[in-house]
UniProtKB/TrEMBL annotation, chain A:
Keywords: Nucleus. GO terms for cellular component: nucleus; ribonuclease MRP complex. It comes from the Eukaryota. Its main location: nucleus. Belongs to the histone-like Alba family. GO terms for molecular function: RNA binding. Pfam families: Alba (PF01918). The keyword Ribosomal protein does not apply. Residues 64-136 form the DNA/RNA-binding protein Alba-like domain. GO terms for biological process: tRNA 5'-leader removal. InterPro entries: Alba-like_dom_sf (IPR036882), Alba-like_NAB (IPR051958), DNA/RNA-bd_Alba-like (IPR002775). Residues 7-18 have a biased composition (Basic and acidic residues). It comes from Hippocampus comes (Tiger tail seahorse). This is Ribonuclease P and MRP subunit p25, b.
TrEMBL record, chain B:
Component of ribonuclease P, a ribonucleoprotein complex that generates mature tRNA molecules by cleaving their 5'-ends. Also a component of the MRP ribonuclease complex, which cleaves pre-rRNA sequences. It comes from Hippocampus comes (Tiger tail seahorse). It comes from the Eukaryota. This is Ribonuclease P protein subunit p20. Belongs to the histone-like Alba family. It is found in: Cytoplasmic granule; Nucleus, Nucleolus. GO terms for cellular component: nucleolar ribonuclease P complex; ribonuclease MRP complex. Its main location: cytoplasm.
């Protein structure tokens, strides 16, 4: 019931990603929640509701890094890398540290979460990856700042990502699996196994001729935005 | 190929303050003023079922385009939704929306990657003895396969 399907609620999800909740009017919530922020309401509390672990069957002791909007990448990575590589003094050199780590983040922290996983893949190397997406329900409590005692609770759905990185092999059939060392190769010929019909794009000149509807808004400019619009 | 020369650079926030179109002023590169010009990410594969999500087009329009690809007459069994940097969130949102409105018929398979981006730094003043510079930085990207699983 939390996932709306009607047309006009799409914008709600979009806005909630952009965290524009001060000006946006979340539609699926009670009508009283309209014009939050402008109407003298202040957000006093934000908590994520428990959602099922996207990786069933994962060992219980796995390190989970919860990436938040304000988390510093160097702090996260400093901690996670130390755990994955193992303290050098304690383990007698060689293989040490944890076998798996999970990075999770929601809303505006999603990009940072991916960045952390990407940095770790580069630094550690040979890591198997499993990526899962889901909506997460966030509970917000808003308080009337204009003297009233009224308080209201808003349930907001935000997209979240969970990335499992593992030194041990994972099930390649699982949707969202990525084998080690796909760095850089992915963007160029995306998922060769899944789409063998992938056509390599011919270099520059034919790029535009193959896009007949291309608006030539920026033909005079060195930087063209057209390919992204399609 | 992309060594971790500067992890901070791959963070979105490291690049966020600079908006080339809004402000003609340079970053923190003194003494000459530069215009920062972000090049487009290169080598975009583009099949009929590839959708590159951006932050300029209306969200609903992009969602509708994906929906149309999946259930229109051409009816693709799978599409790929790509998002880079800030657009990652929107790409995920689109994919989750498609899945939600399909009553569970659609599945998602997300992959992540790092994209190397090039910035051009062009001297503001042509008389100054400043060389045009380029800088590379990394940004994160997501590629979501939205597909009907084989029965």
């Amino acid at each position: 019931a939390l996932l709306p399907t009607t047309e006009n609620e799409h914008s709600f999800f979009h806005d909630s990603t952009a965290k524009a909740h001060h000006k946006s009017t979340p539609q699926p919530v009670p009508p009283a929640a309209l014009k939050l922020g402008q109407d003298g309401f202040k957000k006093v509390c934000r908590s994520e509701e428990h959602s099922p672990c996207p990786f069933p069957g994962l060992a219980s002791g796995v390190l989970e890094m919860r990436v938040k909007e304000g988390s510093k990448i160097r702090n996260l990575m400093g901690f996670a890398m130390a755990r994955m590589q193992g303290e050098k003094g304690l383990c007698g050199g060689g293989e040490g540290g944890l076998r798996q780590v999970v990075f999770t983040g929601s809303g505006r922290a999603v990009t940072k979460t991916i960045t952390c996983a990407e940095i770790m893949k580069r630094k550690v190397g040979s890591l198997h990856q499993l990526t899962k997406l889901q909506y997460k329900v966030v509970k917000e409590v808003w308080e009337n700042t204009e003297g009233g005692t009224s308080e209201m609770t808003v349930h907001r759905t935000v997209p979240s990502i969970s990335i499992l990185l593992s030194k041990d092999p994972l099930d390649p059939q699982e949707p969202g699996y990525q084998p080690p060392e796909t760095i850089g190769a992915l963007w160029q010929d995306k998922e060769g196994h899944a789409a063998p019909s992938a056509i390599k794009r011919p270099p520059e000149p034919s790029l535009f001729s193959s896009l007949p509807h291309c608006k030539r808004v920026c033909s005079g400019e060195g930087v063209s935005v057209s390919p992204l619009l399609h | 190929m992309s060594e971790p020369r500067n992890p901070g650079m791959s963070s979105l926030h490291a690049v966020a303050p600079v908006q080339p179109s809004d402000s003609p002023c340079a970053v923190d590169i003194d003494p000459v003023e530069y215009t920062l010009r972000k090049r487009l990410p290169r080598k975009l594969p583009k099949r009929r079922n590839d959708v590159y999500v951006n932050m300029k087009t209306d969200f609903r329009a992009q969602l509708a385009r994906c929906q149309k690809l999946l259930d229109g007459g051409s009816g693709h069994r799978e599409i790929c939704v790509h998002g880079l940097g800030l657009a990652i969130n929107r790409a995920i949102n689109i994919a989750l929306q498609l899945q939600a409105s399909s009553q569970g018929a659609l599945q998602l398979a997300a992959n992540t990657s790092t994209v190397e981006l090039v910035d051009d730094l062009e001297p503001e003043d042509a008389d100054e003895v400043a060389e045009p510079l380029t800088r590379t930085r990394n940004n994160s990207a997501i590629h979501i396969k939205v597909f009907y699983p084989d029965p």
